[in-house]
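Posted in: Structural Biology > Protein-Ligand Complexes

Title: Requesting predicted complex, MU-OXO-diiron in pocket

I'd be grateful if someone could produce the 3D structure tokens for the following input. Sequence and ligand are given below.
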Amino acid sequence: MVEVCRDVYWVGAIDWSGRDFHGFETCRGLTYNSYLVTDEKNALIDGVKHEFAREQIRKINSYVKLDDIDYLVVNHVEPDHSGSLPELLRRANPEVVCTRRGKEGLEKYYDGEDWNFRVVKTGDRIKLGEKTLTFIETPMLHWPDSMMTWLEERKVLFSMDGFGQHIASSERFDDELGVGEAIRWAKIYYANILMPFGRNVLRTIKKLEELKINPEIIAPSHGVVWRNPDRIIREYVKWANFESESKAVIVYDTMWHSTEKIAMAIAEGIASKGVKVRVFHVRKDSWADIMTEILDAKAVCIGSPTMHGSVFPPIAGFLAYMKGLKPKNKIAAVFSSYGWGIGAYEEIIELLKDLEFGIIEGLKVKFRPSEEELEVARELGEKIGEIVAK
Ligand code: FEO
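-- Reply #1 --
Done. Output follows.
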């Protein structure tokens, strides 16, 4: 039994072996959280991924009969939360509570299912008995259908993907896992799922304040429940504003170690100015970790060999991933080893300009870097280090 607070129970699932969340590497697994609120009427907040439907139903049945659920609140349509709905709704007939866009999404995903919808918008309330659910639309945080649900009498905010973390653990609360550890996982989640939606994050936090929603507990749909909501809200404000630290990230790939040698020389130059450097090989390191470091870095350096007149394919793949996540407020430099064409350098510069990064002139080296060219790379690193340290 996991009691979040009086009359609120966790009835989710732990996916210990899940290692991929649509391309986001989840090296420690993940959870799909669902919550049961009991009263004169009972409400289930969200489903879980399809393959965990029976596990969710077993947990619900340990508190109330499935038939006794009056409302199934769908805060978000994405199948990691709605996948168990067909199984749940074959065995019970609650009202399915969601936004207008939520209804559209559920009807498309689960075509042919005849569900009893109740469409809600911001400020709508459902009285369960002693307790009340209030709904807050949070469009594009991170889908158009997204909303949060507020349980006023217990001061619990069911925040959907917001404030989530992808980590499987036996601990269900931030203070059990360790608040610092929970924030570390929340940062990885934010960088890889919510980074493009920083403005919506800030808008939502403001909206919650205007609605006088001051949660004592934030119960997201992934990871541990926050009993220290102020800590994670504070971090979210920093991340959404792209507050940076004195840090540079170097991401590279290499064919015959030439681009790698340049990467190491630039790193040496940056570090010589007392600035933190993180160096990642794009085929050996986790893209989720790279993006987490980029989130609060001031400088990003991208290194790619030129292959077939263009960007080395693994770097091209990573750049597409980074472009989608839209990091902001960075300076950037490009370095490249080439044989007879400099296509990679130019292409990467164009992409970084699209991201509105401030471009510093980088380095192009024919074949293998000489000692003189490595010295130029160290000087480039020193220049980047000086800018970051300011
Ligand atoms: Fe956890 Fe947007 O789904």
